[in-house]
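call fold target=AAA domain-containing protein
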Amino acid sequence: MIIKRDAYMNQLIERQNNGMIKVITGIRRCGKSFLLFRLYKEYLVNSGVDPEHIIEIVLDGIESEELRNPKVCYTYIKGRITDNEKYYILLDEVQFLERFEEVLNSLLRIENVDVYVTGSNSKFLSKDIITEFRGRGDEIHIYPLTFSEFYAAFGGEYDDAWDEYLNYGGLPALLDMNSPKQKMNYLKSIFDNVYMKDVIDRNRIKNIDEINTLVDILASSIGSLTNPTKISNTFATKRHSSYTNKTISAHIEFLEEAYLISKANRYDIKGRKYIAANLKYYFTDVGLRNARLSFRQQEPKHLMENIVYNELLVRGYQVDVGIVEVNQKNSEGKSIRKQLEVDFVTNMGSQRYYIQVAYDFSAKEKQKQEYNSFRNIPDSFKKIVLVNGSSKPWRNEDGFVIMGMKFFLINEDSLDF
């Protein structure tokens, strides 16, 4: 099955022949190799590039065992370059190549080559790129399928596709699986045997039970405020464990580096400052999150929120969790300070959107709750409530935009409506 990844293809095309190493990163099994070796190679050939000028090496295959030696690999590539025309070098799973940093930096010194690599998140992370290539690496980070990509390949009705995506997420391999059991087993297996193994092996973690429990806690609390100290206290009181907040912070960072989770910081909208006390964590793929909890803890609102968060990241926004401080009267008539939450504050350049996510928006009390946060924001940036369903955008009497999830996810420029 061919799944178009146009957003990432456009990034590759924009960076073609820019004199830098194009480094495709992302969680395992999200389609990095397919993007480079199928979609981008087809683009090059269709653009008139001679296939002999495309040098492909899949370094995790047995056929490439000898090429994992840096000198052998470099000599092989140099030997394939026989004229002054442009050559495109595509290296898959480059972390299998010994001293890959030296090889890639050496390739950059050849004038008529353009280099593209994919790397596993267990040994080849964003911070490694920054450190090793010193400004000569150009990262393209890709995610599992967005809902619009999934829906286009699914071939069924929207409601069926939405239920499927909400349960099993967007890893491309799932589209070729038929039974729920097969999908659940696949997700559980790769979570334990690929993603967690990567994290544990890379960081030489010894307290494996604790980090596994930490992952379960984070999976259970998507969309909820937390911090390492709070998690540490939970371990101390309920599990009688000395899993310190310092170790928890380090382990959370390892999970972020492996692209399993990402964090949304809290931003004080009125005070225009970040608040370090609490933040939220979301999973890169909701299917992996659900599999981690054996598909037992299905909260549609929190899953919707996670999907919206990932969609905003894919579209290139910086995403924070917003708070608005207000003065209110308590039952005794005393003035108290209260923090109202805005699910997401999204920024790109000078543009900003405030977004609330509401699974069930029919109750007046729920509408009042979501609108109240917006009413206390002292600026004129667009304020949007995303609701379950397929309703097209409309504005209420306060000027707030109410938009169905289908419209938001299917239309790339939906926030501008």
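return ok
The chain has two domains: 6-141, 145-417. DSSP finds 15 helices and 13 strands in the chain.
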